[in-house]
Design goal:
The protein is of the alpha/beta class and about 280 residues long. α1 crosses α7. α5 links the parallel β5 (about 130-135) and β6 (about 190-195). The protein has a single domain (about 5-280), classed as NAD(P)-binding Rossmann-like Domain (Rossmann fold, 3-Layer(aba) Sandwich), CATH 3.40.50.720. It has helices spanning about 15-25, 35-50, 65-80, 105-125, 160-180, 210-215, 220-235, 260-270; strands at about 5-10, 30-35, 55-60, 85-90, 130-135, 190-195, 245, 250.
């Protein structure tokens, strides 16, 4: 992987950090955006020291802000002319209904709209290498996700954290499959992965029972990262696109995730959020 440039979101902790560590050990150039500069610089120093790889670089970016994402991708495109692998790993699960700086329900904004915007703005760089890969993190719990295109932010229907989270993860799978169809004539593969139940900071706002269960039964972030590393490095996965992986195996995703009309309507519905960002930057 020494000639590969990899961008990983959510790499300051959990699965993302362990993925960055593993790929850094393989010699890849690792770029990772982060919101908290102080903690991100500590992770940068830790990973450089432990891997011996100095090509691990933090960039300021708040995934809860479309302006911040656009500032990051604009600067990134000025620095680099290509990107081999994009891993959209970052995500959240809030116990309360929170709005982002853009006034959008946080699960929809950070788990789905942020990787959508990040990916669309970086696609020009991914058309430069001989082959490139996009990996989107989702969850097996997307099977219980339901979309109401006219109320994605739960403005009218009752908000529950589990419903907001599972909806966002279903959106990730729908976007993966629709983007793969869009890029089928290119050398860019797009897949999503459900790493399983992992003991990460995702459960920091959960109740005591969930926290204790996660600590006892959930897998470690390092073990979960193996699936992402496999998708990023294996020769055979480079020829696969539009698939849902559970760990290192291709699986059937939910019935709703194969609905091409639903995916098209979701994209059309969500593009209105980005009218001041994607198109103004001529992406």
């Amino acid at each position: 992987m020494k000639d590969k440039h990899i961008l990983i979101t959510g790499a300051t902790s959990g699965i993302g950090k362990e993925t960055a560590r593993a790929l850094g050990n393989l010699g890849a150039r690792i770029s990772f955006p982060g919101r908290n500069k102080e903690s991100a610089l500590k992770v940068q120093e830790e990973l450089r020291r432990e891997t011996g790889n100095q090509a691990i670089q933090f960039f300021p970016c708040d995934l809860a802000s479309f302006e911040s994402i656009t500032d990051f991708t604009t600067g990134f495109r000025k620095l680099y002319n290509s990107l081999d692998i994009l891993i959209n790993n970052a995500g959240l699960w809030n116990s309360k209904r929170i709005l982002t700086q853009d006034g959008i329900e946080s699960h929809l904004a950070v788990n789905y709209l942020a990787p959508f915007l990040m990916t669309e703005q970086l696609l020009p760089l991914m058309k430069m290498p001989e082959a490139a890969r996009i990996i989107n993190l989702t969850s097996g719990i997307h099977f219980r996700g339901k979309l109401e295109l006219n109320d994605l932010e739960f403005s009218s229907r009752k908000w529950r954290s589990i419903d907001a989270y599972t909806q966002s993860k279903l959106c990730n799978v729908l976007y993966t499959k629709s983007l793969a169809r869009k890029l089928e004539d290119t050398k860019i593969s797009v897949n999503c992965i459900a790493p399983g139940w992992v003991n990460t900071g995702l459960f920091r706002d959960a109740g005591a029972f969930v926290k204790i269960s996660a600590s006892l039964m959930a897998m470690s972030p390092a073990k979960a990262a193996r699936g992402l590393v496999y998708l990023a490095t294996a020769r055979e996965t480079g020829a696969v696109s539009g698939e849902y992986f559970a760990g290192m195996k291709i699986r059937k995703s939910s019935q709703a995730s194969y609905d091409e009309q639903l995916a098209a309507e979701l994209r059309q519905n969500c593009e209105k959020y980005f009218k001041n960002y994607i198109y103004n930057n001529q992406i």
